[in-house]
Amino acid sequence: MNRKSNGKKKKNILGKRSAYVRSCFPLTKVRRSRIHGRGVYAARLIRKGSRIIEYTGQRVQEKDAPDDKDNSHTFYFALSNGKVIDPVVDGNDARWINHCCEPNCEAIEQRSRIFIYAIRNIEPGEELFYDYSLQIDEPVNQRTKKQFACLCSSSKCRGTMLEV
Predict the structure, then answer these.
(1) Number of structural domains found in the chain
(2) What single DSSP character describes residue 64?
(3) Where residue 123 sits, what CATH number does that domain have?
(4) Does residue 29 lie within any of the structural domains?
C-alpha cells in the first residue's frame, strides 16, 4: 500500500492516468502481414503475461458450425464445452492474429472464453502470433500438411499449422 510518511494513504493518480492511457491508446492494430493477409500488431509495448485481447465471435455447437469449403482459412476456436467460436459472425481483431511455430502469444480458455496472452515482451510494431496447433478430422499426411502449410519462416518452423 502506498503511504506517506504520516501514515495516510496516497491517492492513486497514476492508476487513473494509466487507465486513461489504455483507453486512448489501443494495445493492437490490424494491418497487412508479411505472413498471410492481415495481421495484428502491437501498437505499444505489451509486457509478458499481459492479457491482450479476447477472441470473440458467435458460439455454436461444433456440429452446427458452417463448413465453408471455399474458405479454408476461417478457423474456429474449439471450447471445452463442445462449442466453437465462429469469428466471421461478431468477431473482432483477434481473428487476424496469424500462426507461427515460434509464437509470442498463447490462447487460453477461461470460463468458455478465449483470451490471447503475451508469452514474452512484445515490442511496438511487432506482429502477434500464436501456434494454431490445428486439429482436423482426417489423417495428418503430406496432403493435409500441405493444405495447412505454415508460412512463418521461423527457424523452428515445422512446415504446417497442424498439431503434429
Answers:
(1) 1
(2) G
(3) 2.170.270.10
(4) yes
Q: Which residue has the cell 491508446?
A: 25
Instruction: Reduce the DSSP state of residue 19 to 3 states and report it.
Output: helix
- Model pLDDT for residues 91-142, shown as the tens digit of each residue: 999 999 999 999 999 999 999 999 999 999 999 999 999 999 998 888 999 9
Q: Cell 458460439, residue?
A: 59
pLDDT > 50? residue 82: yes
| Contact predicate 152/100, CB 8 Å | yes
- In this structure, what C-alpha cell is assigned to residue 135? 486439429
For position 164, what pLDDT does the model report?
Answer: 82
By residue range, what is the domain housing residue 123? Answer: 25-132
Question: What is the predicted pLDDT for the residue at 120?
Answer: 98
Domain annotation covers residue 149? no
* Residue 104 falls inside a structural domain: yes
Written as nine digits, the cell of 120 is 514474452
Spatial contact of 105 and 52, defined as CB atoms under 8 Å apart: yes
- How far is it, in rounded angstroms, from Cα 62 to Cα 52? 26
The answer to whether position 83 is within a domain reads: yes
What is the pTM for the complete model shown?
Answer: 0.81
Half-sphere CA count of 96, side-chain side, radius 13 A: 16
Residues with Cβ within 8 Å of 161's Cβ and at least 6 positions away in sequence, in order, are 99, 132, 133, 134, 148, 149, 150
